[in-house]
Structures are given as structure tokens and as C-alpha cells.
Inverse folding.
């Protein structure tokens, strides 16, 4: 009798779980939202405190660049949407961020971004600011 009860409980559990799982799969197959995490990283240079988040789209024509600059108290996340961007951080060299890729520039580091490709480039930029009383951007003469 004990074995029959276990099998009954197991089958009862399956009867409840299987329809729920099939509903999730059906929702995703019918064009429900798809969640893709792009980048996850601890904040740097901000003592884990964020006062404000600023989200922007930046567009670069072919051959253009942002000036050397820094963000006092603000970490920058750069997610390239179209084209490719070269990001150079003073003293660390340059790296290419391709469409669909992302990178983080810690607060206080002097850097620039440039489009060295033959097509336009576009990126989503998120600044996590620890100090709203400081300017968002400071251009640095080199």
C-alpha cells in the first residue's frame, strides 16, 4: 500500500507541474519577452553608493571620437548597439567593443571612445553617479 501511495503522490505532483511548465514554454514560443543579461559587475570607485543613474544614447559618425574625459564619481557602462567602438583608458590601452558587447569604465578614469569603422556607431551609455553635486563629465586636455 505504501508504494502505491508514493506513486500516486508522484503522479499527482506531475499532473500539477507539467501544465505549468508547458504554459511557460508556450508563452515564450508565442513571442513573450526574452530576458538577456548583457553585463553584471560590482560598482567600482563609488563605495557602493549610487545617487543617480543617467541613461543616454550616443551616436558616432565614422571617424569621430569623444574628447579625452572623465566622470567624477560616476561609473560608465557602454553597450554598443550598432557598429563598433574603440574605448581607450589612459594607461590601460585600447579595446574594441563590437555591436552587442558591453564594457565598464570605473569612476575617475580618463578615457575616450572613437569610431574607427566605415559605418556609423551607436551605443547605450549608463552612468551610475555617486555624487550628483559633481559634474557628469570633465574634459581633460592631453
Amino acid at each position: 500500500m505504501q508504494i502505491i501511495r508514493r506513486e500516486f503522490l508522484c503522479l499527482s505532483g506531475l499532473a500539477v507541474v507539467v501544465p505549468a511548465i508547458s504554459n511557460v514554454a508556450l508563452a515564450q514560443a508565442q513571442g513573450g519577452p526574452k530576458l538577456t543579461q548583457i553585463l553584471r559587475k560590482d560598482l567600482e570607485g563609488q563605495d557602493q553608493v549610487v545617487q543617480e543613474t543617467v541613461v543616454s544614447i550616443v551616436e558616432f559618425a565614422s571617424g569621430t571620437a569623444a574628447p579625452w574625459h572623465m566622470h567624477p564619481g560616476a561609473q560608465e557602462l557602454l553597450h554598443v548597439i550598432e557598429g563598433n567602438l574603440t574605448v581607450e583608458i589612459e594607461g590601460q590601452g585600447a579595446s574594441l567593443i563590437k555591436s552587442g558587447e558591453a564594457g565598464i569604465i570605473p569612476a575617475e578614469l580618463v578615457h575616450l571612445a572613437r569610431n574607427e569603422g566605415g559605418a556609423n556607431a551607436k551605443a547605450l551609455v549608463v552612468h551610475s553617479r555617486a555624487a550628483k553635486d559633481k559634474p557628469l563629465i570633465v574634459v581633460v586636455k592631453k
Observations:
- Confidence is low (pLDDT under 50) at residues 1-30.
- DSSP finds one helix and nine strands in the chain.
